[in-house]
Amino acid sequence: MGWEWEVIFKYFPRLLEGAWLTLELVVISGLIGIALSIPLALLRTSPNAWVRALPYAYIYFFRGTPLLVQIFLVYYGASQFEVIRESVLWPVLKEPYWCAIIAFSLNTAAYSAELFRGAIQAIPNGEIEAAESLGMSNALLTRRIILPRMFGIALPGYGNEVILMLKGSALASTITLLDITGMARTVIARTYTPLEMFLAAGVVYLLMSGIIIALFRFMESRFNRYQSYNPDRDA
Amino acid sequence: MDLQGFGHLLVSGTWLTIQLALASLFFGLILGLMGASAKLSDNKFARWVATGYTTLIRGIPELLLVLTIYFGGAQVVMAVASLFGYDEYIEIGPFIAGVAALSIAFGAYATEVFRMAMLEIPKGQWESGLACGMSPTKTFFRIILPQVWRLAIPGLGNLFQVLLKDTALVSVVGLNDIVRQSQVAISATKEPFTFFLVAAFIYLALTAIANTVTHMLERASNPVLRGGR
Predict the structure, then answer these.
(1) In chain A, what are the domain boundaries?
(2) Nearest CA in chain A to B75
(3) What is the CATH number assigned to the segment(s) A5-225?
(4) Of B67, B169, B199, which has the smallest distance from its Cβ to A198's Cβ?
(5) What are the structural domains of chain B?
(6) Is the sign of the CA dihedral B86, B87, B93, B94 positive or negative?
(7) Are B172 and A174 in contact (CB under 8 A)?
(8) What is the pTM of this model?
(9) Taking a contact as any Cβ pair under 8 Å apart, which residues of chain B between 153 and 182 contact chain A?
(10) pLDDT digit string (tens) for chain B, length 229 residues
(11) Residues in chain B closer than 8 A to A166 (CB atoms)
(12) Which of A139, B42, B108, B158 can bridge B57 by disulfide, Cβ–Cβ 3.0-4.6 Å?
């Protein structure tokens, strides 16, 4: 079995270019996903069953179907309708880049909403009652107590979600985007060294997830300091 | 909804997806049990291999794994075979590559689920099994595994849902699963939204069924939930 190290060294810069696109996809759709998921999570914890139903259906659909199908639905599916093809949205919806971002955002919004819902329900009742007894309005209570507490509780779980998003972003290569996987596939089409290039791509992914894990550990130690606080040691 | 006579394609795709998921579940569970036993063993080398396996596989995308095994697997298998003096050309079909990739991915996550479950079993269970004169293997299969099972089923159920959805990735290497068959139908009908939406609802139905079965197994494996004593 021939193993060509030169190919890896020669094309590694291309993989790093791909890594930049992967990073863009993950960060942009992650931010949009958070923005979408917070209202979803708040609606999902509403006492009214009708208000809960809509986010529930949304979350159920996006968690129960493959991300690949969701990407295809946005990228290929949108072109089926004349209305969309002639609308102002078409310049955006015909770009694979934006389709990938839309699909990833909708997908991660569903998963994060479940995560945030769990976190909201894990906030001790006494804290909410204390805020209410101080006369806080619902909006103030949400902004000052619920959201900050939710953020701290959901942080470790959200780190996992970001890793899953990183892995999911490889699917962007199926709609012609040149992310890490897409770049590796393009190089392989030229050099025919699948093992070498896919291995190198795997290393890039591992490095990225290592960085994400380290970043979330750091954030946890900062934002959830009360959990590891030791008065004797940290005085 | 009008499927314009392409319904049978989707049915055959669904059947293939189910076969793929069940085959990968079977091999993935074996890998997971082996991985968990290795991680908890006294052998340093076994622990090292298992940790490497889970860290590596859980850090790379499943799609990359499918592509690597489909396009590069034959190269590795041929190199290994030639060590044993077999120099013929070997080809790995998309189904085998798909099952291999999906079970390797499933096995890595299942390793963690089994490991957690095994850690929950009190040490006394092992000791009393051995004290009754059972061999370690017999103790494992008769005493430990049935209890591990009960603890592991909820986690494994979640992983199976992930596996079902990951089967969609094999369409990229040309296996005629639900997604691929939808694409075939789309190339004739030019109705991508309709067919991908139908595909999405088939997956939704499959995950709902998987969920129900998981709950049934959970009940069956837990005497307390079953109402027994």
Answers:
(1) 5-225
(2) A1
(3) 1.10.3720.10
(4) B67
(5) 18-177 (1.10.3720.10)
(6) positive
(7) yes
(8) 0.90
(9) 161, 165-169, 171-172, 179
(10) 667 778 888 999 999 999 999 999 999 999 999 999 999 988 999 999 999 999 999 999 999 999 999 988 888 888 888 888 887 787 888 899 999 999 999 999 999 999 999 998 998 998 999 999 999 889 988 988 888 988 999 999 999 999 999 999 999 988 999 999 999 999 988 899 999 999 999 999 999 999 999 999 988 887 777 766 5
(11) 61
(12) B108
